[in-house]
Amino acid sequence: MNFVFSRKRIAGILVALPANERRFVDDMRRFDFPESRSLKLMEVMGYDRHRVVTEGTCVSDLAVIALERLFDRKLVDREAVDALIVVTQSPDHFMPPTSNIIQGRLKLKHDMLCLDIPQGCAGYLIGLIQAFLILQQPHLKNVLVVNADVLSRKVAVTDRNSYPLIGDGLAVTLVENNAGPDVIYANVKMEGSASDALIIPAGGFRQPCSAETAVVRDAGDGNSRSLNDLRMDGTAVFNFVQREVPPMIDDLLRFANSSKDQVDFFLFHQPNKFMLQKLANKMGVPHEKMPMNVVENFGNSSGVTVPTAIAFNLGERLVRESRNVCLAGFGVGLTWSSMLLQLGPLDFCEMIDVL
Amino acid sequence: MTQSLRRLLTEIRPEAEFDRSTDFFGDGLLDSFDLMTFVSTLDKKYAISIEGTDIVPEHFCSFDAIQSLLTKYGVAE
Asked: What is the CATH number that goes with domain B2-72?
């Protein structure tokens, strides 16, 4: 599904990551694998450090700190927020929506829209698309897209497939109506029949959490996890990404009447270094145009890796100048999405440590 | 070629007896993460880039399957 938006602008990005950092060399002692095997994997996948929240920290806790920072610095007027979109797979509660909780804690105005979107690795783009759709109402001015996850709390520390790469984090993106001439192109694709490739089996209404679902079992491949924990079919996800993402980018560029040469940076979701290297090679994109350094520094925080890749690699630069960028997210759902836009100059684009 | 492949695989899984298997994944000798490590090793050794869509267990389940794939990338025996 293709989208075209005009008179819209990303005005700023603030990434807030938990200060608590774990290192792969410490994590690997918990895995039932020889150290030499884990170290080889560390080199290939780009595992090193990852940020995870301390026990009990929720998405709304990260969001309140980050948004208060924006309000205090007068980067956003509290009264001017027309909508708050929260994209997360780790809500504070099933009900009420986390966006409502954040609105309440920040004492935002009543005359606004709060909306939760339960999407993952493509969630940042889905949130942006939703913000642009809301801003089709010309009298609305500002939408805050909060993309956040604290999924380390749902990953078994004995699961080498997932724990070394999992990261927690939050990004706030201010999206506004704008009189500029730039056009934003986007597309979204979905494949729900493969939805069990990335899943937390228990905890919803289909299979509520119980003493039974909390039992950690040997998964048969040297990893152990319970049904309450995230489970990833690494091979299925890898093959899906390699098969579907390159043609999606080709479709987007064709739709936008553009080409890869005209794109300054490909800022993609960051599952691991190996997957991104293979994607770049397949797409014929020079590695220097596709940053791959988020997992090794911060971990994979689902959709939040996209704004993290932006702020970490181009933060100060995008405050001064504008770049033609292609964003992409792919994973849970399965969902994959891409976006072509002129990004910058931004009012702010930075990273902070919180909690 | 088989000898070279055996050595590379044994570096990843020293305890595995690859000669006795024609299904490295089914027999539990390799998992998906070993596959990534192995592909990275082959890429470096033969100066190739095995495409992501070729990184599936069927192409790495036996010495014959791996040799077939490498032939596709111009790696001679």
From this structure: 1.10.1200
CA atoms within 13 A on the CB side of A42: 18
Tokens of A171: 């990004």
How many residue pairs bridge chain A and chain B with CB atoms within 8 Å of each other?
57
- Residue A311 belongs to what H/E stretch? helix A305-320
Q: Please indicate if any CB of chain B lies within 8 Å of the CB of A221.
A: yes
DSSP letters for A235-302 = HHHHHHHHHHHHHHHHHHHHHTT--GGG-SEEEE--S-HHHHHHHHHHHT--GGGS---HHHHH-B-G
ipTM of predicted complex: 0.86
CB contact under 8 A, A278 and B13: no
**Alpha carbon distance A290, A277 (integer Å):** 9
Residue B41 pLDDT: 93
pLDDT digits (tens, 9 = 90+) for A263-316: 999 999 999 999 999 999 999 999 999 999 999 999 999 999 999 999 999 999
Pairing of strands A335-343, A83-87: unpaired
Contact A183, A6 (CB under 8 A): yes
DSSP for B27-77, please give it. TTS--HHHHHHHHHHHHHHHT----GGG-SGGGGSSHHHHHHHHHHTT---
Fold (CATH) for A1-205+224-355? Peroxisomal Thiolase; Chain A, domain 1 (3.40.47)
Q: How confident is the model at residue B3 (pLDDT cuts 50, 70, 90)?
A: confident
Report how far residue A265's alpha carbon sits from residue A292's, in angstroms, rounded to the nearest whole number.
12
Burial class (CB in 10 A: 0-12, 13-18, 19+), A314: buried
**SS3 assignment, position A87:** strand
In the three-class reduction of DSSP (H, G, I as helix; E, B as strand; rest coil), residue A85 is classed as: strand
| Ranges of chain A with pLDDT below 50 | none
**What residues 40-59 of chain B have any CB closer than 8 A to a CB of chain A?**
40, 49, 51-53, 55-57
Q: Scan for tokens 């992501």, then name that residue.
A: B52
- Rounded Cα distance between B77 and B66, Å, is 11
B13 vs A: CB within 8 A: yes
How much is the pLDDT for A34? Answer: 78
Q: Which of A109, A170, A111 has the alpha carbon at shortest distance from A145?
A: A170
